[in-house]
Amino acid sequence: MIVSRRFGYIFLKTARTAGTSTEIALSRSAGPDDIITPIMKEDEILRRREGGCGPRNHHARPGQPLWQGRLRTLLHRGHSLFRNHMSAAELRPLLPEQLWNDSFRFCVERNPFDRALSLYYWCCRHGEAISLDEFLESPRLNLLIDRGRRIYLDDAGELQVHRVLRYEQLSRQLEDLRQELGIPEPLRLPFAKSVARGDRRHYSEVLSSLARRRIETLFEPELERFGYRF
């Protein structure tokens, strides 16, 4: 998650949508007062290699003394005030109202069929022996809701962002957004977390009819809102 005072945007990070790659690309142009939340250790190494800025200003509210934020982090067993995959509902109360209102807020969404398959390969990257159908029937698929539509929708289903970028067109749409926000350098996307998926077949070649129905039921709001189809 990034709150950029320098360029006036808030990036809310969904899961399995190239969020870490987008975060790394955006962090290259971060200003000293921007909020950047920590990511996984191996991704921080990639971010440094790609010339991005690491975590900053994530301990305390804007305007709060840094020592108070660090003390809070210690008291809460290392948990920062601002964290990865924060929802709009969680983030908004922590920011000055004017900063929230004046910032261009955006996130990324992905075809649920492809996204669910991506989560399966990610969760099984260390060799877990579970079939795809078993995985898609398990509660772990709810991660894509908790770190998906609940990130950018309120309880009434209203969008809390100004734009939802499409994973399938991410490079082009990020370039359009870069120009709108006035970010000087192109947002070159690294391939973070891409090694988790060895099988590169299209989801239509992999998902069973059972898996398709499960995803259609669970992600009906995304399919309807964004027009995704199998």
Report on the architecture of this protein.
It is built from 13 helices and 5 strands. The chain has helices at residues 19-27, 41-49, 66-75, 88-91, 97-102, 112-123, 132-137, 143-146, 149-152, 170-181, 203-206, 209-218, 220-226, and strands spanning 2-4, 9-11, 35-36, 104-109, 163-166. It has a 5-stranded mixed beta sheet with strand order 3-1-2-4-5. The longest helix is centred in the middle third of the chain and has 12 residues, at 112-123. The chain is globular. The chain starts with a strand and ends with a helix.
Question: How would you summarize the topology of this molecule?
Answer:
Layout: E1 2-4, E2 9-11, H1 19-27, E3 35-36, H2 41-49, H3 66-75, H4 88-91, H5 97-102, E4 104-109, H6 112-123, H7 132-137, H8 143-146, H9 149-152, E5 163-166, H10 170-181, H11 203-206, H12 209-218, H13 220-226
Parallel strand pairs: 2-4, 4-5
Antiparallel strand pairs: 1-2, 1-3
Query: What is the CATH architecture descriptor?
Result: 3-Layer(aba) Sandwich
Q: How many H/I helices?
A: 13
Order of H and E elements: EEHEHHHHEHHHHEHHHH
CATH C-level category: Alpha Beta
Instruction: Going across the biggest sheet, name each strand in turn.
Output: 3-1-2-4-5
Give the overall average pLDDT: 91
What's the end-to-end separation, in Å? 30 Å
Low-confidence segments: 71-76
What share of residues is helical?
40-55%
Oligomer: single chain
Total discrete domains: 1
Largest sheet: 5 strands, mixed
Shape: globular
Relative strand content: 5-15%
Radius of gyration using CA atoms only? 18 Å
Q: What is the CATH fold-level name?
A: Rossmann fold
